[in-house]
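Hello everyone,

My group is preparing for a crystallization screen and wants a predicted model to guide construct design. The compound we'll soak is S-adenosylmethionine. Before spending weeks at the bench, it would help to have a computed complex in hand. I've included the protein sequence and the ligand's SMILES below. Output in structure-token form would be ideal because that's what our pipeline reads.
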Amino acid sequence: MTTCPSTTEAGDASELRAQLVEQLRANHHIRSAAVERAFRAVPRHAFAPDSTLEAAYTDDIVATRRRDDGTITSSISAPWLQAEMLEAARIQPGHRVLEIGSGGYNAALIAELTGPTGHVTTLDIDPAVTERAARFLPETGYDGVRVVTADAEHMPSTVVPEGGFDAVVVTVDTWDLPWIDSLADGGRLVAPLRLHGYHWAIGFTKENGALHSDEPFIVCGFVAMQGDGAWNPNRLTVPGTGVHLSWEDGTPLPVDQLAPALTREPTVTRTGITVGGQEPFDLLTLYLAGALPGFCRLEADPEGEHRVPSPPPPHWPAAAIVRGASLARLAHERVGDGDDGKGRHEFVVHGYGDQGHLAAREMAEQVETWQDNHRGGHCPLITARPAAGRDPAGPDHEPHVFAKKHTHITVDWPIVPSDTAPSHRPRFKERRRMSGGTA
Ligand SMILES: C[S@@+](CC[C@H](N)C(=O)[O-])C[C@H]1O[C@@H](n2cnc3c(N)ncnc32)[C@H](O)[C@@H]1O
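Reply:
Good plan to model first. Here are the tokens for the complex, ready for your pipeline.
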């Protein structure tokens, strides 16, 4: 039975909702009248009955389900990210829309956008999540939304309308995009896509059977995909060193032979290229991941038996490459205070092992290529093509192509004209915030 909120509570909720909408507009996360109307209409607190009103209307996630170890497995995503993704989905009245990863609130926002002539399906692998969504949606007046319990890796054919969905909004961290066939030609797909452990929400349009990105990247984090689409971090430990290497994309290389290299002082190759203390460089690491064969990500236990100076933080493992019994790793050294007092850092590459200096030089050259040709430019263009039909015996490393289970993802890096002033170039969205509480 639903308890009716008191008049005061309902008034408070409306006021807090209006304040949140103003904040999302002021920060340009809400840009269209339709998305604004949706946010004004849907009572977010009704989908978070265990939270305070203030928490429900803060621009942050509301965790709704955790494992025993505290890991969040379901949440109402942060409003700023929901607004960005709904803007990118370009949903129109009458559209048929699929939401992957449920909870109810975002599905209700989508239902506001599709209107009475549209159709919304929201799908989740966790029956406890769909049970809540199936309860909250009718309670708030969105009883037309279809709620489905299934693993999104195996899209039930009965869920997909004839001709495909007009839009698919993926609200769970995904390593692959197995939904191309569920989308109508010309349809939109918005998803937080993982490439070598880095993740961005990206908007695509389907054309000629492939997905083509056409929205700026949004740095974000969602809860992890479960079920058969869960990714394999391919995390290997170099014996006796406390150093771990992950190949989330690409074929893992042997690591046992790296132990002697990691217990000796590294060489340092300087690049002369600097970055501000608050300036993200995720796009550099994506560039390196595509450019360098043997790319992986390195973590080092602070107390491990290794010579990795300033080990990277666990959630942001460093870019690295393996070359036989040698290894190179991207690092940075403080070289000044920076204009904002947050420090200015130079990219340096540490080389481990007999050939470590050569591996470091190879990585440093790619940092220079990125600096000269791509830094501060447009977002790279991402194309996802079905993997079926690709030659399985093709080359091990095709530059800037990530071979997934269902798709091959190509990253095209536009060249920045040398006479373009950095301030005039569009940039990717730099806000680093979590939607789902994991990184
Ligand atoms: C961030 S929550 C979804 C948030 C929701 N869209 C909202 O209203 O804000 C992510 C959801 O993805 C679900 N999920 C994880 N793996 C899945 C899979 N393989 N198929 C479908 N849903 C999955 C989780 O159970 C979780 O509820």
